[in-house]
């Protein structure tokens, strides 16, 4: 088990990223908090990592999986999106489209895996080969998902110049 100091450092270093991933999937602050806690409980009991990048990739993967596990519960599938984005700190100033909330709303409407790929590519800055490693998929699959998600977003936002 990790020390309290290691756990505090990880939460400080990666907490915002984990919360953003959880929010994109869970859409409600109370659910985000539950998944966030579970992710860092798993982290506290995880074995050592090869590097900080491996640790970050592991947290991303565990966060996505924890969200999927929570969403498999029947009543969670029927939860509607509440307008909590103003309450969720990450959406006010750190996301690139904070000036364009309609883009974030559209990203939130995407189904997985498109939502995850868009988030990792645009918000976390990973390239397609890095996303492929994190999601344990082929690079071509990630490129296809990215293209399809862009097409869906283009349709939702009604624009021809979305890239």
Topology:
Blueprint: H1 4-26, H2 29-45, H3 52-71, H4 74-77, H5 90-93, H6 101-109, H7 114-123, H8 128-135, H9 139-157
Helix pairs in contact: 1-2, 1-3, 2-3, 7-9, 8-9
Explain what you see.
The protein has 163 residues and is mostly helical. It has nine helices and no strands. The protein has helices at 4-26, 29-45, 52-71, 74-77, 90-93, 101-109, 114-123, 128-135, 139-157. The longest helix is centred in the first third of the chain and has 23 residues, at 4-26. It is globular, with a radius of gyration of 16 Å. Mean pLDDT is 82; it is low at 79-97.
Rounded mean pLDDT is 82
Provide a count of the helices.
9
- What characteristic shape results from the CA principal axes? globular
Radius of gyration: 16 Å
Order of helices and strands: HHHHHHHHH
Key attributes of the depicted protein:
single chain; 163 residues; mainly alpha; globular
Briefly summarize what is shown.
The chain is mainly α and 163 residues long. The chain has helices at residues 4-26, 29-45, 52-71, 74-77, 90-93, 101-109, 114-123, 128-135, 139-157. The protein has nine helices and no strands.
């Amino acid at each position: 088990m990790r020390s309290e100091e290691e756990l505090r450092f990880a939460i400080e270093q990666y907490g915002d990223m984990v919360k953003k991933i959880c929010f994109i999937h869970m859409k409600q602050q109370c659910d985000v908090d539950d998944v966030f806690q579970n992710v860092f409980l798993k982290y506290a009991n995880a074995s050592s990592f090869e590097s900080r990048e491996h640790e970050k990739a592991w947290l991303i993967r565990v966060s996505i999986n924890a969200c999927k596990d929570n969403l498999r519960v029947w009543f969670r599938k029927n939860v509607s999106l509440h307008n909590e984005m103003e309450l969720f700190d990450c959406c006010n100033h750190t996301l690139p489209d904070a000036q364009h909330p309609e883009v974030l709303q559209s990203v939130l409407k995407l189904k997985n895996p498109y939502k995850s790929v868009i988030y990792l590519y645009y918000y976390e800055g990973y390239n397609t080969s890095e996303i492929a490693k994190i999601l344990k998929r082929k690079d071509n699959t990630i490129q296809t998902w990215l293209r399809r998600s862009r097409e869906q977003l283009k349709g939702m936002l009604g624009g021809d110049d979305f890239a």
